[in-house]
Amino acid sequence: MASKQQSREKLDERAKQGETVVQGGTGGKSLEAQEHLAEGRSKGGQTRKEQLGTEGYKEMGREGGLSTMDKSGAERAEEEGIKIDQSKFTNK
User: Fold this and answer.
1) CB within 8 A of 53, min separation 6: which ones?
2) DSSP label at residue 31
3) Cα 74 from chain centroid (whole Å)
4) pTM of the full predicted structure?
5) How far does the signal peptide extend, from start to end residue (predicted)?
6) Residue 18 Cα distances to 7, 23, 77, angstroms
7) Exposed (0-12), middle (13-18) or buried (19+): which is 78, by Cβ within 10 Å?
8) Kindly report the CA angle at 24 between 19 and 29, in degrees rounded to 5?
9) H helices within 1-92, ranges in order?
10) Which residues of 35-66 are buried (b: 16+ CB within 10 A; e: fewer)?
11) What percent of the chain lies above the pLDDT cut of 70?
12) Tell me, what's the pLDDT at 85?
């Protein structure tokens, strides 16, 4: 059975080949870099949620989920008649 050190070395090698081995670590060139990126992204999202409040964060996610390569979420929401309350996007 591989030790924890050997397992980390294998993951690091895969990361150096360009594979994402840590969820949220996209773009990291090593296992450690991917771990740091994932942690920062998680903290950033949590901070944003605290700033907007749960309702605002959910509303922003609804709009973002509608976006496509050629249209913003706001444009699609308007086209499809989906109500997005942007007043909830303001910081608390």
Assistant:
1) 88, 92
2) H
3) 19
4) 0.57
5) none
6) 17, 14, 36
7) middle
8) 40
9) 4-16, 31-66, 73-80
10) bebbeeeeeeeeeeeeebeeebbebbeebeeb
11) 97
12) 86
What's the N-to-C CA distance of the chain in angstroms? 51
Q: Could you tell me the two tokens for 38?
A: 């994932």
């949590």: which residue's tokens?
Answer: 46
**By CB neighbour count within 10 A (0-12 exposed, 13-18 middle, 19+ buried), where does 90 fall?**
exposed
On the 0-12 / 13-18 / 19+ scale of CB atoms within 10 A, 34 is: buried
Q: Which residue type sits at 57?
A: Y
Per-domain residue ranges of the chain? 7-89
Query: Cα(54)–Cα(52) distance, rounded to whole angstroms?
Result: 7
Whose structure tokens read 């059975």? 1
**Structural tokens at position 53:** 């409040």
